[in-house]
Amino acid sequence: MAIIEFPQDMKWGAATAAYQIEGAAFEGGRGPSIWDTFSHTPGKVKNGDNGDVACDSYHRFEEDIQLMKELGIEMYRFSVSWPRIFPEGTGAVNPEGVQYYHQFVDALLANGIEPMCTLYHWDLPQSLQDQGGWEKRETVEAFAEYAAFMFKEFGGKIKKWITINEPWCVSFLSNFIGVHAPGYQDLQLATTISHHLLLAHGKAVRRFRESGIEGGIGYAPNTEWNEPFSSKQEDVDACRRATGWFIEWFFDPVFKGSYPEFMTDWLKQKGVTLAIEDGDMEIISQEIDFLGINYYTGSVARYKENHDLFDVEKVDIGYEKTDIDWNIYPEGFYKVLCKITDQYGRVPIYITENGACYNDEVENGRVTDDRRIQYLKGHLAALKRSMDSGVNIKGYLTWSLMDNFEWAEGYDKRFGLIHVDFNTLVRTKKDSYYWYKKIIENGWFEIG
Ligand code: BGC
């Protein structure tokens, strides 16, 4: 048995995203997003699920905030639905949408919970997609305008801002692998989009500074760890590329003002060109106030010629997996955090997502999700090890407050501390909810 203890000033929280929980897809003047289109396209989402109703948090936010309060979280990470603010992406503002988020943020503050607001968690207004989406620089400008509007409107209330959630997913997962909206399979397109997302991030940071509002801003890239199967140079290099796709590709431009050569060389060989215009890298590399890090999984991997994009294959050496089939790999969390600190300095970090999919159901009014508790224990121990190694962790926000619309997996995959019955919308606190509440109260837990 060991006691894992966190500093007193560590912030504890939970995270969600608009399309995954809000529902009310056709209410309150909201315009359609690419996720409405995608989820209503047959065959794109498991069981034909969509986010029309989701957890109905749009209507039930007061109940949800009471659940947060009882849980004891100090910070709540949510995202704003861009098409609720600008139904067409640009142009006319939707006052009802603005009013909704004011009510919501006011209620959080009244309950002593600090809002952390993500500006883009994947629900691009469909009208912008119709004009080319993130492939176009006009979308970058539209995002900067939307961000500036939000800073002006919510300045003083919201003090923690995240520009883009998981730019890797928005670019490569959605436009090269093609399993998320809009669902293209085009490496050139995805790479261009990755650059435009970084540019959108940089422009929003600039607008934030110009706004003069109080608070801090960052972005939330998703990370993964790939551990070389052997010390053979080809395995080491293959893993460097596989991890670099998540880390260096999305961090070097922000922290160093350039793309990593080992990655650009590789992508060039694949026929990809990068459309960098004069001034782009200066905009992208604006100083940020904190980093949001999302981490779920890692793998052992090795070189395999002509396999996938980076000549790398994952090797299943028998890791336990969560119910979404992702390896449980807390060591990777530790390594990712140490690598980021080694390469980019002691940037203040909030873990903006970390959590596990387990599909435990309600039995006699209780959800016994011990496996989620074990997962969280392992990852929090890894987090503490990273802090003891000098990683500058400010807070931890678990994914997710409640079960929700898990993108291409629909309602089939549950990540919440709170169970949601998607027929009745009844919320039930899981065992992990009570366990997390205790950590927040005590600042420590026992493991081993
Ligand atoms: C996303 C969440 C998602 C979670 C679990 C992250 O990629 O930001 O929206 O639900 O992982 O898949």
From TrEMBL:
Q: Which SUPFAM superfamilies match?
A: (Trans)glycosidases
- What is this enzyme's catalytic activity, as reactions? Hydrolysis of terminal, non-reducing beta-D-glucosyl residues with release of beta-D-glucose; 6-phospho-beta-D-glucosyl-(1->4)-D-glucose + H2O = D-glucose 6-phosphate + D-glucose
Instruction: Enumerate the GO terms in the molecular function aspect.
Output: 6-phospho-beta-glucosidase activity
Residues that hold substrate according to the record? Q20, H121, N165, Y296, W399, E406, W407
Alphabetical list of InterPro entries matching this protein: GH, Glyco_hydro_1, Glyco_hydro_1_AS, Glyco_hydro_1_beta-glucosidase
Among Gene3D superfamilies, the record links this protein to: Glycosidases
Q: Which GO terms describe its biological process?
A: cellulose catabolic process
Sorted alphabetically, which Pfam families does this protein's record hold? Glyco_hydro_1
In short, the EC number is 3.2.1.21
Enzyme superclass (EC): hydrolase
Indicate whether Hydrolase appears among the record's keywords: yes
Keyword Hydrolase appears in the UniProt entry:
yes
Q: Where is the active site?
A: E166 (proton donor), E353 (nucleophile)
GO annotations of cellular component type: cytosol
**Protein keywords:** Carbohydrate metabolism, Cellulose degradation, Glycosidase, Hydrolase, Polysaccharide degradation
Q: Which family does it belong to?
A: Belongs to the glycosyl hydrolase 1 family.
Q: What is the name of this protein?
A: Beta-glucosidase
Taxonomic lineage per UniProt?
A: Bacteria, Bacillati, Bacillota, Bacilli, Bacillales
